[in-house]
């Protein structure tokens, strides 16, 4: 077997979308619907354990607002979430959501090396398209053979469904791929699909359990801005490039 493809999570992995995008968008949507809810960054740390915006809203209502009355919580969460998606896309369209260090470079190097690229995320498809278009340009949508997103599968992460779906669509075995994740729910999902995984942490996930990962890094790094190795064997690499991925693949796959 050889390394054929790289599969990327989106939120927290490609960009810091949670703090600067999703959280802001949720609060804007609450305000516009006249709700007096405001999620703090501290509360959002907890709410992020629930993947998927609609499920997150319902978890919040059930846990924190037991007296909140609404005829149909599912319908309410759906409407609120649709507004939140619009707000999120607006934020991304303003160009306020840069990619994390090394992401664009690695996409380019991987494509040049003939590696196949895909995305596996629980976020809403419109969010992924907006992020890619506004950071890399419309053409970059074609860089990804499959953009597996949202409820295209029955169970969101931590279930492995989205990774199984992407592998099937690409006709690849898990052993031919590496995945990139940032969270405990993400590694549970790739573990379920048996895909070896690199982690880049962020402020919400730096204390998460990443059991099963092959390496945990601060970020992908750049030649002049090395990553910090948080877990895994030190090598000469100071930023993630195709040579480093091949080295990790040879060691772990
Ligand atoms: C991302 C999520 C998403 C976003 C919100 O998880 O959990 O729910 O927070 O997106 P991952 P939506 O990075 O593991 O894919 O509101 O569109 O669901
Ligand atoms: Mg993520």
Question: How would you describe what is shown here?
Answer:
The structure is a single chain. By secondary structure, the chain is of the alpha/beta class. The chain has nine helices and seven strands. Strands 3-2-1-4-5-6-7 form a seven-stranded mixed β-sheet, sandwiched between helices. The model has no long low-confidence stretch (mean pLDDT 97). It binds xylulose-1,5-bisphosphate and magnesium ion. The site of magnesium ion has 7 residues, from loops.
Give the N-terminus to C-terminus distance in angstroms. Answer: 9 Å
| Helical residues, percent | 40-55%
Beta-sheet strand percentage? 5-15%
Structural class: alpha/beta
Bound molecules: xylulose-1,5-bisphosphate, magnesium ion
User: Which consecutive residue ranges, at least 5 long each, have pLDDT under 50?
Assistant: none
- What is the string of helix and strand elements? EHHHHHEHEHEHEEEH
Our Rg estimate from Cα atoms comes to 18 Å
The number of helical segments is: 9
Extended strand count: 7
Biggest sheet character: 7 strands, mixed
The outline comes out as: globular
Determine the mean pLDDT. Answer: 97
Strands side by side in the biggest sheet: 3-2-1-4-5-6-7
